[in-house]
Amino acid sequence: MDTNSSHASEEASAAADYLGLARLAVTAASERLGHDPLIIDVGDLIGVTDYFVVTAGSTTRQVRAIVDEVEEHLTLGAGIKPVNVEGSDYCEWVLMDYGGFMVHVLTDEKRAFYDLERLWADCPRPLTTA
Questions:
Q1: Cα separation of 38 and 29, whole Å?
Q2: Residues 130, 23: contact at Cβ < 8 Å?
């Protein structure tokens, strides 16, 4: 078997798995009323991950609830835990790093200020549902 095509096939399979997991994160965020959850495909532009999941909450308490729900869904539903979590002390912008995808949960104020959607506007936006 051609090892290059085998490697490309494995990468495509992993990316599809990451998209499915990102969609699971969107579902979890929606259950805690995360605002406008979306997936951004950044895989062709940055080398550290394939997808960003972005959502927001009105308050730091809601951000914490969204983060907890995402972590629970992915741990129980897919058996994975984040490699790293940043920002959970203040819960204004929490970044959950799952390797092939990252979940950004921000307050509405921080989301408007940093405007990740504009920053990554040229990237594809996969449907958030399967």
A1: 10
A2: yes
Look at residue 129 and tell me whether its pLDDT is greater than 90: no
What's this model's pTM, rounded to 2 decimal places? 0.87
CB 107 within 8 A of CB 28: no
Radius of gyration of the CA atoms of the chain, in A? 15
Strand partners, 33: none
What is residue 87's three-state secondary structure?
Answer: coil
Angle between helices 60-78 and 3-31 (to 10 degrees): 130
Q: List the beta bridge partners of residue 39.
A: 53
Per the document, the length of the chain is: 130
Question: Where do the domains of the chain lie, and which CATH numbers do they carry?
Answer: 3-119 (3.30.460.10)
Rounded Cα–Cα distance for residues 33 and 10 (Å): 35
